[in-house]
Amino acid sequence: MTQDNRTAFEDERIRVKNESVQQELDKSFSTERPNVTYEDKENFQTSQDFQISYSHCHEEMLKNYGGQCWEIFNDSMSELGKENWCNMEMVIRNYHKLTECIEFICSALGCFYPNRVVEQLFVRIHQQYFSSCNNEEDLPDAPAGVVLVSTLLPILLIPFIVFIVVWKSSLRD
C-alpha cells in the first residue's frame, strides 16, 4: 500500500467516523434524557465499557463538535437572559446538556473525558458566562464584644466545673 493510498484510506476512515458521529449527535439531541442514573441502569460500571479504544483521539473533530455543543449552549443561555446566568437553578439544565453533549462526543471520537480540549472549552464558557458571578456573600465579622465573651466564657467556666467535680468527689469519700 502506497503512502497516497494510506492517506486516502485514513481520510476516508475519518470522514466515515465524522458522519457517524454527526448522526449519533443529531439523534442524541433529538431525544430527551433524564438527569438520573437508575439502579438498574448502572452499566457504566461494567468492564465492557472500558474496552472502547481510546488509542487515538481526533482532537480537531472534537473541537468542531465541541463547537456545536458550545453553540447549542450559547443559544440556550441567550434565551435564558444575562440576568439569570448566575442563578444556578436556571442554568443547571443547560450546563448539564452541554456536559452530556461533550461526554458523548468524546466517547464517539475515542477521546478520554475530560481532556485538554474539553478543559479549554469549559474554561472559555466559565469566563464568558460565570466570571461575574459572586460565590457567596462574605459574612461580616462578629462584633469584638461577642468574640471576647464567646472566648472567655468557656475559659472561665472550666475552673469552676473542675472545682465542682473535685468537691463532689470529696463528699463521696
Automatic annotation (TrEMBL):
InterPro entries: RAMP (IPR006985), RAMP_sf (IPR038126). It holds the Pfam family RAMP. The chain crosses the membrane at residues 142-167. GO terms for cellular component: cell surface; plasma membrane; receptor complex. The keyword Signal applies. GO terms for molecular function: coreceptor activity. It comes from the Eukaryota. It is found in: Cell membrane. It is a single-pass type I membrane protein. Keywords: Cell membrane, Disulfide bond, Membrane, Receptor, Signal, Transmembrane, Transmembrane helix, Transport. GO terms for biological process: angiogenesis; calcium ion transport; cellular response to hormone stimulus; G protein-coupled receptor signaling pathway; intracellular protein transport; protein localization to plasma membrane; receptor internalization; regulation of G protein-coupled receptor signaling pathway. PANTHER family: RECEPTOR ACTIVITY MODIFYING PROTEIN RAMP (PTHR14076), RECEPTOR ACTIVITY-MODIFYING PROTEIN 2 (PTHR14076:SF9). Belongs to the RAMP family. This is Receptor activity-modifying protein 1-like. The lineage of its organism: Eukaryota, Metazoa, Chordata, Craniata, Vertebrata.
